[in-house]
# Entry
Amino acid sequence: MDKIRAAITGIGAFLPEYRLTNEEISQLVETSDEWIMQRIGIKERRILKEEGLATSDMGVAAIKQLLEKTGTKPEEIELLICATMTPDSPLPATANIINFKAGLTNAWSFDLTAACSGFVYGLTTGAKFIESGQYKKVIVLGADMMSSVVNYKDRATCPLFGDGAAAVLLEPTTEDLGVIDHINRVDGAGAQFLQIKSGGSLKPASYETIDNDEHFIFQEGQTVFKTAVSNMADIASEMMQKHQISGDDLAWLVPHQANMRIIDAVGRRMGIDKEKVMVNIQMYGNTTAATIPLCLYDYESQLKKGDNIILVAFGAGFTWGTIYLKWAYDPKE
# Structure
């Protein structure tokens, strides 16, 4: 019996219209376009400003585009995995709201929380359902409205993040294509260095937590930077060695878009040419679970069937992971 693998057969995305520029951020905190570009590499980020809209609305838009592009009916989808750290609300799961709004009447769904590693974890999970033979059509969505948890008085974090969503369709293949392998890891000792301090069961919301700005994202920048570079480079290199993939064999490295210096450092440590590293952080900032699928979306026209691609991410938790996949289709005319 031929081995079943999960292949990405289409991508859809949504980005809010509003562009928050470095010039505008410099009016909120003491910074400048030059400082942000030198240290982070972000020129602008998209922000969902319309009242009454949330993560689910971005997810629905991305999924509807995906279904249209692939000629898939909503009722054909059997599972939706929503990777997010900014759910519409603690209950119910944002995936369930998206499921209803997008008309996925025959799908079950759930949220997956792994911060910036969310899409890699979600793709790993979705692939397993396809490989089992149980499902034929699975959507993996990365969606985050980071503007809802960013403190725009905090110079260290407010230039970093943006809002966005992107989704892929997974379908089975017996060709030597699709998700080949994955390695995912965690280290809870890093929890204190990248977190939202309050709002959960440990420290529920109170006047004190609100006054102390503890419902916004916090990070210890230097620790996160060093750990992200070493762990992303090491785990992606481990995957390449495991499958005997050289830099020449690799078509694309798709790193989580957290910081341009992190992206550059990971590429250098792995010995990958810059031309083979997907980068769009300058346009969108760090959209957390959406960064990797947004890269695939932006570069879709350059991807060719059979391309060797390494995805790699690092996020709060600490979480990190990598996926080796072979691209399953040629760009459409």
Q: What stands out?
A: The first helix runs from residue 22 to 25. The chain has two domains: 5-176, 180-326. The domain at 5-176 is CATH 3.40.47.10 (Peroxisomal Thiolase; Chain A, domain 1). The CA atoms of residues 240 and 246 lie 7 Å apart.
